[in-house]
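re: ur question from yesterday

yeah so i grabbed the chain u mentioned. its 417 aa long if i counted rite. heres the sequnce exactly as i have it in my notes:
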Amino acid sequence: MSERRVLLIIGGGIAAYKAPELVRQLKAKGLAVRCLLTAAAEQFVSPLSLASVSGDKVYENLFDLTDEAEMGHIQLSRDADLILVAPATADLISKMAQGLANDLASTTLLATDKPVMIAPAMNVRMWEHPATQRNLGLLRADGIALIGPDEGDMACGEFGLGRMSDPIEIAAAAHALIEKAPARTSEPTAPPALAGHKILVTAGPTYEPIDPVRYIANRSSGKQGYAVALALQALGAEVHLVSGPTALNDPQGMRVTRVETAQEMLHACQASLPVDAAIMAAAVADWRPSDSHDKKIKKTKSGLDDLKLTENPDILATIAKQGDHRPALVVGFAAETDKVETYASEKLARKNCDWIVANDVSQDSGIEGGVMGSDENRVHLITQTGTQNWAQMPKVHVAQKLAHEIATHFTPTKETR
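ran it thru and got these structure tokens back, copy pasting raw so excuse formatting
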């Protein structure tokens, strides 16, 4: 609790795209950052991007049962030394001024007793409107700090006051304000649900080289695996992420090992043992070329010679059969295009793992553009005792739900206590 913390509430304006950079600037000032994303803001910046740069869970829904069972909006408002609203849209400013509380952002703002700073961003006409200026007057009278807005060109094509201040300036102002505020105090609380647990997570594809410029791979983006790693970290776990090639940034605050091939991934996973749990979300290539050429294979009139393949090591099955070093919980992932639950159940038994997270990656999955590369997923959690069919939701929410299931698995019952 010694580190100063900012709760960053991101409103639904075009300036929301600057939120990841604002998080970086706040962290550069030595501040921990937790993000709260409004529904409209999610159209401009993804929860996964914010979770990656902040190293913490991103909060979105007032009625998330896991959080609200403990009155999460109250706790959010108490855990911060400063609440920063950036961008503060005309709508959010109006809600604050009128004391409305109809979503997680406005409810948290109404429940706080900590300093609040807003960084307005809106069209110049909206900024100059008497209603907005009247609301700002009420907020100033309530002690709300204000930075900006700046003058300049706007996304709508107009010019004037209304641009959100530069993230560097906002971070500096927030740091100055937070230094003046008394440090927060709290009653001793129970440690996070997975504190003290070491968990291995794999993510992304593997690349199996044919020659220096070509390889065998798959369409995995790594988004689901990275989201799982962040969700487990948010619950206090010590996470080791072993990632194949992805375009995602390394999550902060956890050990990350980058690999390329299936053999490299297996070696990295084995080197990580012992761990309490292994969440094997990577989409490992099943085969690799028997011979990888040192020089580029040239195209000839006779065409390409037969490409001979060798089966890759089965990383999930290997980790699940480690004997004394076997993790207490091994979770596999199954990407199927048909008979999803049937094939996944067979995989559960064949691989000797404890759970399987299965999803339909066909073009008929019902998810626009398909699961691979998108931010949405619909999964089945298959265990030794039954199957849970989860509704379609963002991959970040799938990860949080899975992390909660893992935490529940490791939570001692009253009898074992």
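noticed a couple things. Residues 65-71, 413-417 have pLDDT under 50 and may be disordered. also The two ends are 27 Å apart (CA to CA).
anyway ttyl
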